[in-house]
Amino acid sequence: MRRKLVVGNWKMYGRLGRNKALLEEVLKGIKDLNNAEYGVCVPYPYLAQAQSMLQGTKLAWGAQNLSQHEEGAFTGAVAPGMLVDFGCRYVIIGHSERRALFHESNEIASAKFDAAIKAGMTPIFCVGETLAEREGGVTEQVVARQLEVVLNHAGVEAMAKTVIAYEPVWAIGTGKTASPDQAQAVHAFIRQQVAQLDGQTAQGLCILYGGSVKANNSPELFAMPDIDGGLIGGASLVAEDFVAICRAAHMAAQ
Ligand code: 13P
């Protein structure tokens, strides 16, 4: 059976004091949840705090972005090796907020993906369609294209070290979750795209669902055969809610 994974994406939220309280509560809450894996992707300035609080615990940590360059005159950017210095296991790449608000193309996302793999981190590579694309019936084409750029460039072997997150843009921060069947259909499609190149890698590929995952809808989502956990925005900032979602993954993995 594939592992289940729940990762919190804190986005641009946090303060030292609040983070400490949140992480302490989460660590307490997941102490006995041994069947699944858990992580948080925090803003860059809090990586040191995450590292010092989470080292040796069940909660891994990572970043929400990285530069595709190793180093150089790139004011404001953060190199892959810097994330490695702070013990990051995960780095989110191609999130729809990066694509839409920071104009990150499929090609830039693909270059960042390569940089993360090269640095030895696990990319959490996000794909997903907008509402207009879903209503236009092109969800599969959009997701296939987003995946294809990475597959063509890094090769299917890289998928063995990757987590994919399917995040329909219309479900992010809107309270509108994809139904378990809607999400399952796209997850199965993603797995099938990878299976065309390598069946075994596709079977092992961890595909998370993201978009308004909450404590109450997570059990149903995580029960679907191709949904291997969640990438959690808003609910990851509330310890009780995040722990409840982690528990749903733990239960689904039993
Ligand atoms: P919400 O859970 O707040 O909808 O955010 C989802 C997301 O974008 C996770 O990366």
Describe what you observe in this structure.
By secondary structure, the chain is of the alpha/beta class. It has one domain (4-252): TIM Barrel. 43% of the residues lie in helices and 15% in strands. It has eleven helices and eight strands. It has helices spanning 16-30, 47-54, 80-85, 96-101, 106-118, 131-135, 139-154, 180-195, 199-204, 218-222, 239-252; strands at residues 5-9, 37-41, 59-63, 90-93, 122-127, 163-166, 206-210, 229-232. The protein has an eight-stranded parallel beta barrel with strand order 1-2-3-4-5-6-7-8, surrounded by five helices. The mean pLDDT is 97. Bound molecules: 1,3-dihydroxyacetonephosphate. 1,3-dihydroxyacetonephosphate is lined by residues 9, 95, 167, 172-173, 210-213, 231-235.
Task: Describe the structure in brief.
The chain is 43% helix and 15% strand.
What is the secondary structure topology, with strand pairs?
Layout: E1 5-9, H1 16-30, E2 37-41, H2 47-54, E3 59-63, H3 80-85, E4 90-93, H4 96-101, H5 106-118, E5 122-127, H6 131-135, H7 139-154, E6 163-166, H8 180-195, H9 199-204, E7 206-210, H10 218-222, E8 229-232, H11 239-252
Parallel strand pairs: 1-2, 1-8, 2-3, 3-4, 4-5, 5-6, 6-7, 7-8
1,3-dihydroxyacetonephosphate (13P) is lined by residues 9, 95, 167, 172-173, 210-213, 231-235.
The low-confidence parts are none
Please state roughly what percent of the residues sit in beta strands, choosing from under 5%, 5-15%, 15-25%, 25-35%, 35-45% or over 45%: 5-15%
What's the CATH first level?
Alpha Beta
Domains (count)? 1
